[in-house]
Design a protein that fits this description.
single chain; alpha/beta; Rossmann fold; 8-stranded mixed β-sheet; two-stranded antiparallel ribbon; globular; AB_hydrolase_fold; hydrolase; hydrolase activity; FrsA_esterase; Dienelactone hydrolase
């Protein structure tokens, strides 16, 4: 991989909300396409494979942006803002992406004078895949979308959890890695229910101008594998790659001490897709 460099940034959205991230730049800083990396539920920019992903993209000649959604629950370390995590929504994440893309266009991010924002790609993991698809369907600047084990339905919380949220005002999901009970308030359910049409992933895929490439591990959850096939079938221009033996994280663990072959395969395919559509 060719040498890269990186710089951090913070976008102040007001109301104590911030989009914090890092731009990874190729060694040769000429006008080049941009790839935005979206983490998923219980993810953040420094988690697991996201630094690796950004480095690989920058080493392949892209400006790669990894960032934290403003209500992902992370400020300085793992989930030190659970009050924000509790009220996160898809609408909030889409507004964060809008602010990020606008900052890129306005030259307010590191290296952004060299960004070719008319050739923007997005890669989203898990729930971040759904957010990426919705955003791309509304922004023609996005010319290519790749999902890693992405969800095909935004309403993926279990019925028991949703009942707790409705009856008690909040439900909780255990984070075994951090030993935290992570709260979810009714904001998320209300957001989904009031945006059924906008958040209908299969409809958005069918209407999307940007080609979608779905990368799915066959050792991931069956509902995600079934969703990947539904997304592939939503429109003929979209495509699917199956990573044999790939788990939800393509066999990588946090902190990532080595790069599994399954992750390498997902990364190689991702770069191939962006080379095809963004170059």
């Amino acid at each position: 991989m060719t040498p890269t460099e990186q710089q951090s940034f913070t976008i102040d959205l007001g109301n104590n909300l911030f989009v914090r991230g890092d731009v990874h730049a190729p060694a040769e800083q000429t006008k080049r396409p941009v790839v935005i990396i979206c983490h998923g539920f219980k993810g953040y920019k420094d988690w697991n494979f996201f630094p690796y992903t950004a480095e690989e993209l920058a080493g392949s000649g892209y400006y790669a942006i990894r960032f934290n959604f403003s209500c992902n629950g992370v400020d300085k370390e793992d989930f030190d803002e659970l009050d924000k995590f509790a009220v996160n929504t898809y609408t909030r994440e889409l507004k964060d992406l809008e602010a990020l893309l606008q900052a890129a266009k306005d030259g307010d991010l590191p290296y952004s004078d060299m960004f070719d924002t008319d050739r923007t790609g997005i890669v989203g993991h898990s729930r971040g895949g759904a957010t990426s698809i919705i955003f791309a369907s509304e922004h023609p600047e996005v010319k290519s979308v790749v999902t890693w084990n992405g969800v095909a339905d935004v309403d993926f919380l279990g019925e028991e959890l949703k009942q707790d949220i409705r009856e008690k005002g909040a439900g909780y999901i255990a984070n075994k890695r951090t030993n935290q009970d992570m709260p979810i308030k009714a904001n998320l359910l209300e957001d989904i229910e009031s945006n059924r049409e906008r958040f209908d992933i299969l409809s958005r895929i069918n209407e999307m101008h940007a080609p979608l490439h779905i990368i799915q591990g066959d050792a991931d959850g069956s509902w995600l594998q079934e969703g990947a096939e539904k997304m592939r079938d939503a429109a003929s221009e979209h495509s699917l790659t199956i990573i044999e033996g790939g788990t939800h994280t393509f066999n990588a663990a946090h902190p990532m001490e080595h790069v599994p072959r399954e992750l390498e395969q997902a990364m190689e395919k991702t770069i191939d897709v962006f080379d095809n559509y963004l170059r």
